Amino acid sequence: MIGYFLLIAWIFAAVRLSNIQVEPLFFRKKEFDANRKFLVLASVSIILLTGLRSISVGPDSDSYATYIENLHNGMYLSGYERFEKGFEWFSKAIAFMTGNYTIYFLIIAAIIMMCYALLIRRSAQNYFWPIYLYITIGPFVFQLTGLRQAMAMAICAASVIFVQKKKPIPFILLVLLAAQFHTSAYVFLPLYFLGNIRLGSKSFFLFLGGVAGILFANEQIISVSNQLLGYDKGYENAPGGIVSILVYVGSIVLAMLYKNNLFSDNMLKSDDKKELQQAQYNTIFFNMSLIALLMLVMRYWMRSAERASKYYQIGAVLLLANTICSIKDDRTRKVVKAIVGLLAIALFIYRQSKEDSAYVYSFFWQ
Q1: Is 263:198 a contact under the CB 8 Å cutoff?
Q2: Rounded Cα–Cα distance for residues 141 and 150 (Å)
Q3: Nearest Cα residue to 22 out of 167, 125, 152
Q4: Which of 68, 97, 120, 224 lies deepest, with the highest CB count within 10 Å?
């Protein structure tokens, strides 16, 4: 766990190095340059930590290391037939040059972080909070093991930009690309139709409809989900997951308390391009959080639904980050920042303490 805390400590150090102001701002040039510098420093740090890890970090890391080495040596890859063609071709391109798993991990980590950084740069009012929450309650730990799906999740995250721009073709193309790395990426396609629905009676009834669908059509949902995720599982009694559900519920409730600062009707009709864009992204992130919450509820019938919900996880991270930055009262904002910051690191420690030794960090040379 020490390696992870060193990363978080470095993120705070990067705040000082880049002179970033950890406050809600639509950036002026000086502030934008400082935030951009921080985003680069933080992204490079995450890339290095995830890329330079030992194959003992993450349950599947050893398998992927063996995969790239065997590809490079031209050996028969028994057991890897289930890998999607896009990931296979991507890996073969790297294997043509090297079989070194550290270089392989670094390239994958760089692609993942570039996608997330692109979305953060386009949609966040401040870059510190998205990065901090990405590490503590977001998809950071998952990318240490599930490389194929982690890449697919990151590509889908980048596609959110085209949901905001209301450009279906590039959005669909990116999701199709993501599905070539992990078939489960198809679960992200509905976001284009659901992402821009404004908070109100329509979204409320859609949420209720989703709950009703889970309750009354769970067998059909399980069947379709198993096909997308490549599983062959029926009903699973999967208790737990309450902590993740509370994270989404907390993000949604806090956003609703400050909805007038995030996506009010006036903001969504604003002539100010930046304000309009911010309100549109916040609306998308709110709906992503609702979708993820529904999928986590589905987890109680089908454990694999939790894996599907991870595609929408970044929405809750950015919703919470932007909500914090939207609070106008200084005292209230500082209190919320302190509470969220402490709860996030406490949750990170709790989750790591519950994991087995597969997530104990070590570098490849150790």
Answers
A1: yes
A2: 10
A3: 125
A4: 120
**What DSSP string runs through 189-219?**
TTHHHHTTPPTTHHHHHHHHHHHHHHHHSHH
pLDDT tens track for 119-162: 999 998 888 889 999 998 888 888 888 899 999 999 999 999 99
Rounded-to-integer distance, Cα 197 and Cα 344, Å: 28
Q: Tell me the pLDDT tens digit for each residue of 244-293.
A: 888 888 899 999 888 888 887 677 677 777 888 888 899 999 999 988 88
Query: Which pTM was predicted?
Result: 0.86
Residue 170, token pair as written in the block: 């590039």
**Helix/strand/coil for 115:** helix
Question: 289, 87, 32, 280: which is closest to 165 by C-alpha?
Answer: 280
Rounded Cα distance between 154 and 139, Å, is 9
Question: Cα separation of 268 and 77, whole Å?
Answer: 52
State whether the Cα torsion 123-129-133-136 is positive or negative.
positive
Phi, psi of 358 (to 5 degrees): -65, -20
Pairwise CA distance, residues 344 & 135, whole Å: 9
**Is the backbone of residue 240 left (phi > 0), alpha (psi -120 to 50) or beta?**
left
pLDDT, tens only, 21-44: 555 544 445 555 677 788 888 888
